[in-house]
Amino acid sequence: MNNKAFYLETFGCQMNVVDSERIVDLLGNIGYRQVDEPGQAGLILLNTCAVRDKAVRKAYGHLGRFKPLKDRDPTLILGMGGCIAQQEGKQLLEEFPYLDLVFGTHNVHRLPEMVQQVAEQHVRCEETEFLDRETRLQLFPVRSGQEAFTRFVTVMQGCDNFCSYCVVPLVRGREISRPSGEILAEIRDLARQGVREVTLIGQNVNSYGTKEAAELSFAALLDQVNAIDGIDRIRFTTSHPKDLSDELVECFGRLEKLCWHLHLPVQCGSNQILRAMNRGYTRERYLEIVRRLRNACPEIRLTSDIIVGFPGETEADFAATMSLLEEVRYAEIYSFIYSPRRGTAAAEIVDTTPAKDKQERFDRMLALQQEISRQTWEADVGTVQEVLVEGESKLGEGQLFGRSTWNRIVNFSGPAELAGSLVPVRITRAYRNSLLGERVLP
Ligand code: SAH
Ligand code: SF4
Question: Does one domain contain both 118 and 8?
Fold first, then answer.
């Protein structure tokens, strides 16, 4: 008799989070239940990320930690999925003799059969081929109900942008948009289950529908989501600046449910590097979009991704990124030191900048941004913000947590019944990663 408990670890972006929710459902259908302790599991799966070398090393590190469990119990099934699995394929089985199964980003639906095969026939298996468009359109993940007030909804998959540093187009395949009717039906269903906030996700949601005949534009899709009863808040990620239409900018001024936050990765502030990155916009064009967004919605706050140390980045290029940060004043940034990825165009460029210079630039940038972020959040103290309460916080009994429209965590005290509602909270303190407040009673 097999041990039908499974342990699942998820790395990386929202795509993997959604795929992991799907994995939980699929394995549930064949009688597996999820456990929190790898030691209790008969099946251990890692859903991996390949976007930077650090993420890859972390996944391999975790895989290695499970080897002693397998040595102790040879019936334990060890599997790897996600973006590393997609990129490495069969090679992983050769490299890790204790690994039993490898499934790619287009093959999640095959997992139940693969697991059964390994368990019953004691074979090792690998499936990492990309599927054709029609088949993929049938396989958009709809997940079963979970007790949550906020959910991700996938609107598109894959990426055709080929930014020169990025492995995503290689491991997630070509871009496809999910039919809008299906998206809206899923959101209506979520609203009926009590979900109050949806985040529409995809690698590049702004190009939603542009490659399909007779599909809604992304802005028109937002209009329709805005009309769904029971949904109070809408977010979306990720946005590519080159595809951000005027129609979408206007949504921020027009749609009352659309949150006042946009993650708009700029990557860097120098035109020469933006060109080498194949980003498809200039610094000037990006700043123009920011101006339009702020005209449409003066309260909007932006966040961004920055890559430091792209091959050929000079001190002057880096200074352009620093001045852009000062000009835009992002609420928060996610910054990374460039990591060469096999198969990408940038991996071929000779990189002469010493690692210590990159680290030093990275530290300088972090110091600048930390100060800007601190000023942004400290200015919140004394204001009243509407918080969507997600549940009880870990801070103690009677403590609740939720998020503001700007996606900041707000902690305050109140009765547990407030979970799922929008509550006005006066901010009393600002911390690095959260705000503290008091409920404003009507
Ligand atoms: N589709 C999204 C997310 C891409 S990956 C987007 O276009 O924004 C998330 C972030 O990882 C990117 O925005 C980029 O800043 C960073 N990233 C991607 N490839 C990288 C690499 N090779 N080295 C360092 N950072 C990278
Ligand atoms: Fe990668 Fe660029 Fe596609 Fe984002 S838009 S996933 S950074 S290739």
Answer: yes
Whether 252 and 268 map to the same domain: the answer is no
Whether residues 233 and 253 share a domain: the answer is yes
Residue 15, ligand 2, Cβ within 6 A: no
> Per mean pLDDT, which range of 58-67, 249-258, 390-399 is the poorest?
390-399
b/e map 151-184, b = 16+ CB within 10 Å: bbbbbbbbbebebbbbbbbbbbbebbbbebeebb
Residue 67 structural domain: 2-129
The preferred substitution site among 54, 166, 204, 348 for testing ligand 1, maximizing ligand atoms within 8 Å of CB, is 166
Ligand 1 pocket check: which of 105, 307, 353 to mutate, most ligand atoms within 8 Å of Cβ? 307
pLDDT for 425 equals 98
Label residue 2 by pLDDT band (50, 70, 90): low
Tens of pLDDT, residues 345-392:
999 999 999 999 999 999 999 999 999 999 999 999 999 999 999 999
Of 97, 92, 203, 200, nearest to 157 by C-alpha is 203
226-280: per-residue pLDDT in tens? 999 999 999 999 999 999 999 999 999 999 999 999 999 999 999 999 999 999 9
Ligand in closest contact with the CA of 207 = 2
Q: Looking at the structure, do residues 125 and 8 belong to the same domain, yes or no?
A: yes
- What is the position in ligand 2's atom list of the atom closest to the CA of 267? 7
